Amino acid sequence: MGYLWEGEWREDSEFPTDEQGAFVRPASSLRERVTSDGSSPYAVEAGRYHLFASYACPWAHRTLIARALMGLEHAISVSFTDPVMGAKGWVLRDGEGAAESPLPEAEFLWQVYTATKPTYSGRVTVPVLWDRRERRIVNHESRDILRMLTTEFRALARRPEVDLSPPELRAEIDATIDAIYDPINNGVYRAGFAKKQEAYETAVHALFEALDHWEGVLSRQRFLLGSRLTEADICLFTTLFRFDLVYVTHFKCNVRRLVDYPNLWGFVRDLYAMPGVAATCRVDHIKTHYFRSHPAINPCGIVPVGPQIDFSLPHGRAER
Predict the structure, then answer these.
(1) What span, in angstroms and rounded, lies between the C-alpha atoms of 297 and 107?
(2) 179-209 core/surface letters (b: 16 or more CB in 10 A; e: else)
(3) 189 given a catalytic annotation
(4) Which stretches of the chain drop beneath a pLDDT of 70?
């Protein structure tokens, strides 16, 4: 762990928490937008933008799934960090696709941030949407990037029939993403990074109450908003895919496993089977990252052998 302070890297082994010991996620600060209507300096153009991503990170995973489902691989290039976050944060030089990086001189992700703003201060996170022409970060907030992919970049998609953010559902999509963010997406981190028992238990109880709720919703319909796949489903999937692999043990989210929820487990297998999604799901990167990048939680860095999970099992959810 670490952060930039006025352009200088500072190591920080502590996760940010409040006085009650509850994890507090820092806000993203670089949040400009690519637009198709000329309302920003960043126009939609094939080949202009690049994603710095991690197979391990659930937030970056959102953007990789949308890119794959829509067929945007030709329009937006991508390179990946090494799965292990070291003393200087995310490492680029050993990641996949490093040779195609628009900043081949950058060894660490923080150098992409200082290339944009030499005095940048804050956390260094993935995903990052980089503008090759202006040589700067456009945005590093996963939700913003996901929405840009599903709307602004849709004109470049080779599968434009995949509409993950239809205008008539957008308010409901946003409300659903809001509803799952705190108790589930961020909830696993609030449990795993808590420094006091009460903060941990508060996070875990809220997490499983939310999982119980969405298990009930998915018992009646195929996706979170009904019969149509949307951004909201992607946002839930990336957390659930990692649940039994790491969160049950590493983050102590062990009240129940994902496989104990027949509808949530079927939902994950449903999305996993969609074209291009499985290729974005790297179990090796996920387990290596979590168990070797958090020495405060797992000081010996031992990566467990299991569990053995077959995400390709038939899901039987199409009839819903």
Answers:
(1) 26
(2) bbbebbbbbbbbbbbbeeeebbebbbebbbe
(3) yes
(4) 1-2, 11-15, 98-99
On whether the CB atoms of residues 231 and 150 are closer than 8 A, the answer is yes
Q: Which residues contact 161 (CB under 8 A, 6 or more apart)?
A: none
> Position of tokens 């999305």?
271
Per annotation, catalytic residue among 49, 55, 57, 281: 57
Sketch out the chain's domains with CATH numbers: 2-156 (3.40.30.10), 167-293 (1.20.1050.10)
**Cβ–Cβ under 8 Å, residues 233 and 214:** no
Q: Counting Cβ atoms within 10 Å, is residue 239 exposed (0-12), middle (13-18) or buried (19+)?
A: buried
Q: What is the pLDDT of residues 131-178, one digit of tens each?
A: 999 999 999 999 999 999 999 999 999 999 999 999 999 999 999 999
Check residue 156 and report its DSSP letter: G
Assess whether the previous peptide bond of 307 is cis (omega < 30° from 0). yes
Helix, strand, or coil here: 208?
helix
Burial 159-174 (b: 16+ CB within 10 A, else e): eeebbbbeeebeeebe
Backbone angles phi, psi at 136, to 5 degrees: -160, 160
Residue 14 has what pLDDT?
Answer: 58
Structure tokens that stand for 149 in this block? 């992919």
Decide: helix, strand or coil at residue 178.
Answer: helix
Q: Any idea which residue has 């963010």 for tokens?
A: 181
C-alpha span between 82 and 80 (Å, rounded): 7
Give φ, ψ of 5 to 5 degrees.
Answer: -125, 110
pLDDT for 15 equals 63
- Single-letter code of the amino acid located at 167: P
For the chain, how long is the longest CA-to-CA vector?
54
- How many angstroms separate the CA atoms of 35 and 169, rounded? 20
Is 300 a residue of the active site? no
Strand order, beta sheet including 128-131: 76-80, 49-53, 128-131, 136-139
